[in-house]
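Batch 3, record 17
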Amino acid sequence: SAVISQKPSRDICQRGTSLTIQCQVDSQVTMMFWYRQQPGQSLTLIATANQGSEATYESGFVIDKFPISRPNLTFSTLTVSNMSPEDSSIYLCSVGSASSGTQYFGPGTRLLVL
Amino acid sequence: DQQVKQNSPSLSVQEGRISILNCDYTNSMFDYFLWYKKYPAEGPTFLISISSIKDKNEDGRFTVFLNKSAKHLSLHIVPSQPGDSAVYFCAASSFQGAQKLVFGQGTRLTINP
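Prediction for the assembled complex:
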């Protein structure tokens, strides 16, 4: 399985500001995913980030609010823009493994917006 | 529209007994199912998966059963141990290779000594 790290692990931000979350994987992977877990809720897929192409966003999520970069096969960033308290969530990146048929998750970034 | 549902938000089981966690889905296009365990302040950890061509998959203490006609799957943990106390999520995908996972709401399992 892949080892995935995220930075920061947690942050407290003021409304109207932006935060960029980093995701680093210890091996080269084609597919990376970004999820959100709002308080008391399930995990919801935000977007799929493939290296060399634009990220694909799920319904309800837009690039202006959640821009994603995928500069290489081991790294990705998710920016939460113009934050409001409703953006307070855990943000998780994951990587897919076609050979094992599963996804492995990072530890998550816990964001609180005041 | 909640395509994957875990109707029990919590479950309490005695140590050594069997824990049974249930999951229902509505989308008949789902053909791959996974179970994850999540501790507080950690990301979900993959436990076990099952393809729709099977009705059972076993890995140590963990067994997943799939009933396609009922659109229902369950995770059995035998015997339950205190370290199993966590939130369990089932997830489904209509893409082989576990892309685009749709998660249930989770069930908090507590194992009592």
